[in-house]
Amino acid sequence: MNTADILIIGAGAAGLMAARELANAGKKVIVLEADNRIGGRIYTQYDASTRKYTELGAEFVHGDLPVTLGLLNEAGIKYRSASAEMVQYDQGAFLEDESFIEHWDLLIDQLNSLQQDISIDEFMSKEFSGYKYDRMRTSVRQFVSGYDTGDPKKASCFALRKEWQSDDDSAQHRVEGGYVSLLNYLAGACKVNGGEILLNAIVKDIYWEPGKVSAIIADGTAYHAQQMILAVPLGVLKASEGQAGAITFHPQLKAHREAIKHMGFGAVIKILLEFDEPFWYSEETEIRIGRSLDHMGYLLSQEEIPTWWTQFPERSSVFTGWIGGPEARAKKEMSDEDILMESLQSVANIFRLGVDELRQRLKTWQVINWTAKPFTRGSYAYDTVNAAVCRHTLNTPVDDTLFFTGEYLYEGTAMGTVEAALTSGKGVAVAIRSININ
C-alpha cells in the first residue's frame, strides 16, 4: 500500500531521525529518498579490499554535541578524537604565528559593539579598511567561505559573532565505521517498527490540503498520508521548477518560498587524494619546508584549493582538500580532472614539490562536487541577515499538515552540522506527536 500516516521526503539525518521517532511512537511512516542510498550529505564509502571507510560528505563531529554523541553511545558506535594541530601556509611559507585571525580581540570587540546586523563583508569593509588589515580581511572572508561555505556578502555578522564566541567546537571527533553507521542504526530502528524507506523515489510534485497530502514521484506513482515532513536539503527547496531535483507544491507555499529564497545555502567541493605514503610527515618534507608537520591535522592556505586535512592521529596517506563558498560555486561546472589538477598544483606549491611527481605518487583520487549533485545542490546552511525570521516561518507547520526539517532550521551555533539535522528531525517528530495527541 502507498498510504501512511506520515510521508517523509528525504532519508538524510533529519529525515531518518524523524522517521525513527515517529515509527517508535506507532506511526505508519514511509520515507521517500531520491538517491540510491540513504544518508544525503552523509556519504561513507567502504573499500572491502582495504577494509577502510572514506567520508565523501560529512566527516567530523564538531564538538561534544549531545544529540549526536548520545545516539552514538545508544547505538554502541565508537568515535575517536580528531583534534590536531592547525597549520597555516601563506605567501610561500608556513607561518610561525599560528594565530587564527590577526587582531582577533579587536575583531570580536567591534562585532560586540554592532547594534544592527549587516553582512560580514560590509562590516569588514567599514570597520577594517586599509592595508594594515589586509590579511585580517582575507582570513575572515576565507573562514566564512571555507568553514561556513557561505558568501561573505550575505553572511550575518550577528550569527558569526555568536559562532565565534562559542566553545562548542573545541573538540573534534570522527565516527568509527563512518557516519553512515549512525544512519543505518536510525533506519534499522524505523524499519523494525514498520516504517518503509524507498530509494530512487524522486518526488516531483506535492499536492496538499489540510489533513491530506500526496507525493508524486518521477515514475508517476503516488503516495498518500495525513501529514508530510520535508527533509530535503535547503538547496533542493531553492531549486526553481524545471531544475534538477526541484519539487513543486500544489498549491504553492508563497510565504515559505520567500523564506527559502532569503536563507543562505553554501557551496562546497571535497577532494580526496590518496598518495603512496603520507609524505607530509616525512623527514624529507621537514627539511624541504623548514618545519615539522608531525602533528598536523588541518592546513589553511591561500592556494586555489585552500583547506586541507589529514587523518591524524592515523598515519593515513589520504590528504583531503576542501573549497567552499563563492569560489566553490564558481567551479560547479568544472570537470573532476580539472579540479584534480588545481588540487595537485595547490599541494605542490605548499610542499615545494613538482606536480608531475605528485601525479606519479597519486594512487587514487575522488572529487565530490556537492553543489553539482541534483539531490543536494550545495553544502549546508549559513545564516544571512534576517535569517531568524525566515527560519521561524519554515519552523511553523502549514495547517498541521506540512512540516519542514533540516540542519538549516537549527537555532544553535551548530547550524549546518549533523547535530543540527538530528536535533531538527527529533524536534519535528515531537511537534507532530503533540499535534496528533491534541
UniProtKB/TrEMBL annotation:
Top-level EC class: oxidoreductase
Metabolic or biological pathway, per its Swiss-Prot or TrEMBL entry: Plant hormone metabolism; auxin biosynthesis
InterPro entries assigned: Amino_oxidase, FAD/NAD-bd_sf, Flavin_monoamine_oxidase
Record domain Amine oxidase: where: 14-432
GO BP, one annotated term: auxin biosynthetic process
Keyword entries, A-Z: Auxin biosynthesis, Oxidoreductase
Top-rank taxon, per record: Bacteria
Catalytically driven reaction(s): L-tryptophan + O2 = indole-3-acetamide + CO2 + H2O
Gene Ontology molecular function terms on file: tryptophan 2-monooxygenase activity
EC number: 1.13.12.3
Entry protein name: Tryptophan 2-monooxygenase
Organism per entry: Mucilaginibacter lappiensis
